[in-house]
Here is the input.
Amino acid sequence: MKDAVTFNLIKKDKKARRGVLSTPHGEVQTPVFMPVGTAGTVKAMRPEEVKALGAEIILSNTYHLYLRPGHEVIKEAGGLHKFMNWDRPILTDSGGFQVFSLGDLRKITNEGVEFRSHIDGSYHMFSPEKSMEVQNALGSDIMMAFDECAPYPCDMDHAERAAKRTTEWLMRCKEAHKNTGKQSLFGIMQGGVYPDLRKKSAEEIVAMDLPGYAVGGLSVGEPKELMCEVLDHCVDHLPENKPRYLMGVGTPDYLFEAVERGIDMCDCVLPTRIARNGTALTSGGQINIKNAKYERDFTPLDGKCDCYTCRNYTRAYLRHLYKSDEILSSMLLSNHNLYFLVNIMKNIRESIEEERFAEYKNEFYREYGYM
Amino acid sequence: MKDAVTFNLIKKDKKARRGVLSTPHGEVQTPVFMPVGTAGTVKAMRPEEVKALGAEIILSNTYHLYLRPGHEVIKEAGGLHKFMNWDRPILTDSGGFQVFSLGDLRKITNEGVEFRSHIDGSYHMFSPEKSMEVQNALGSDIMMAFDECAPYPCDMDHAERAAKRTTEWLMRCKEAHKNTGKQSLFGIMQGGVYPDLRKKSAEEIVAMDLPGYAVGGLSVGEPKELMCEVLDHCVDHLPENKPRYLMGVGTPDYLFEAVERGIDMCDCVLPTRIARNGTALTSGGQINIKNAKYERDFTPLDGKCDCYTCRNYTRAYLRHLYKSDEILSSMLLSNHNLYFLVNIMKNIRESIEEERFAEYKNEFYREYGYM
Here is the structure.
C-alpha cells in the first residue's frame, strides 16, 4: 500500500534541503518548524491563529492525550483533527519520551514501559503495540515509533541496549500499525553520542523502508558542539529521498544548525513556554517583557517583525499585560514567538532556493547576537 | 460646546427603548451590553474577537488603570484606545466603586477618598478632580462621575448623605472635566432603595444637563424584586432624550428587567469571570463544563448558538481544555458568554423594533428556566 505521507526533495544548498511533505491533510513546505500542541491545543492560541502565522503542521503528545481526555474519547469525537478543530497535518509522538522522563514513576522491560500517571498516580503500560493503538485512535498524519531515548550522559553499553531495543520495538510498531493508508509511521534512530551506534541504528531502521526517519536522543542536555558533531554522523546514514526529523529542537540557532546538516523537520515547546514567562524571541535576541525599561517603550516587541502582535501592540502594553497577569499576555507573546520560528524557517526555505543559506545564517546570527 | 456623545431615541415598546448612541469612535446600537475590560483588556480575548462577536463598546476601569500601568503611561501611549488596540467606543468608570469597595483600606471625606492600593499598599487619593484628570488622560468616550455608592443595606440617613455628596461631587466633576468636545461626562444617581431620595438625586443631576445618566447603587446585594421596584422609580425621573445606564448588571434576567424599565446600557464582569471557572450561559440555562456528563458529549455548548465557540468545538473538547488548565478554555468560554449577552441585546433590539419585547422576554425566560 502507498504510504500516507510522501516526500519530494526539490532543491539542495550544500547539505541544506528544500522539500515538500505531502500528507492526507495537505502539503508541508520543508524545512519546517512544528508548533507543539501538547494536550490537543497549541497553548493560548486559537487554531485559526496558528494557521494565520504560517504553521502548516503541528505536533501533539500521545502520552498526554492518552491520559486526558483518553484516546477513546478522541476516537469517538472523530479523531484529533476534528476534536481540536485543526484541519492541517498533525504529527504525534509515541509517548516514549514522556514516560521515560517520569524517572522513579516508570519501569522499562522488553515488553514496554510500566508507568504511573503524573496526574493521578494510576498505573499504565505503554508498549510499541499500545502506542500504535493510541496513535491510530488519534488519527495523526505522522505517527512516531515507540523508542527508548537514552539520557545524556549515557555510557556506550546503555546507549547500545537502548538502540537495539528501539529497533526491535520499531519492528513491532510497524507490525501493529493498523492504518497504513491514512497514517504514516516514522522510525527513530538512537545511539547516543556514539558514531558507530548511530550508524548501526540508522542502517537497521532504514532497512525497514519507512516514509520518514527521526533523529532521537539529541538535544537532551549535551553541549551544542557535540549535538552538531553527532548530528553530522546521523544524517550521513539517512536516505536522501525521505524526510528527516530532529526531535525537540527549537531555539533559533538549533534550527539553523539542524537545517545546515540536512534536517527537514523540527519541533519544540520553547516558543510557547517562554512566552508564558514573558520572554520574547526577537531579531536582536531574547528579551523579557517584564523588565522596567519597557514601561514607557511604545515600540513593537520586534521592529523587524510583521506578526499580529508586533503590528498592533507596544512593549509598554505587553509589559502591562504581563505584570497584570492577563491571559492576553500569553496569547500575544505565544503568537509572536511561534511566528518568529515559523518565519525563520520560511526565510531559510527561500535562502535554500536561492543558494544563500550560509549567508542568511550568518546574517541572522550576527543580528541575534550569537556571534 | 456640543457634547461628544449624543443619543437618538428611535423607537419605544412600552417603556423599552431602541436608540443609537453616537460617539467619537462610532455608533452604538442600544439597548447595549458592554463587555468589561478591567485592566485595558477584555480578559482572554483579542480585541478583534470582541468586535467579531458584536460588541460595539467596552468598559474599562479607572481605578485599575490608574494603579497599573498608570494613566500617564496610557496618555503617553496616545490614550487607552490606542494602547489596547480598540478603536470602538470606550466607557470608563470613575474609580469610585472600586475605592469604596476597599473597606478598611479607604477613608471618605468631602474632599474625596483616601485609599491604599490593593497591589502594593501605597497611599492614594481619588477626588472628583482626580477622577476627571485620570479619565481625561485615558481618553474614553464616556466618563463616569465620581460618586459615593452607598452599600446595601443602608439606612436612609446614610443613603441621603451619599446622594448629596454625589451631587456635590458631580458639580466638581463637571467643572474639572477638561476635554468636553472629545469626551462626555455622565452623571450618576444615588439614593439607595428610597424613592424620595432617588427622585431628589435625579432632579439634581438632571438639572446639570449632562449627555447621559446612570443609575448607581443598584445590584449591590438587594433582592431582585427590590431592585426592579427601585429601578422603576429611578427611571421615572430621567429625561426621555438621554441615554440611561444601569451600572454593573449582567445576568440575562437582569438585562431583560432593566430594558423593560427603560434602561439603555448595562455592563458586567460576569460573562468573562464565570467563563474562567468553566461556567457557560446557554439558552437552556447555566452549565458547568467540568461536569463528568460532558466527557463524551460531542454537541456544542449551546445548540442554538452560532458563536465561534459553538460552531467549532464540542462540550467534550471544552471539558478537556478546562480539566487540563488550558488557556484556550478561558478564551473559548469567554467568547461564548460575551456573545450570549451581546446577542440577547441584539435580539431585544429587534423585538423592540417589532413591538414584541414582552413576548421575547417570556420566550427567553421559559427556555432558560427562569419560570
User: Anything to note?
Assistant: The longest strand of chain A covers residues 6-13. Chain A touches chain B through 35 residues (CB under 8 Å). The mean pLDDT of chain A is 97. The radius of gyration of chain A is 20 Å.
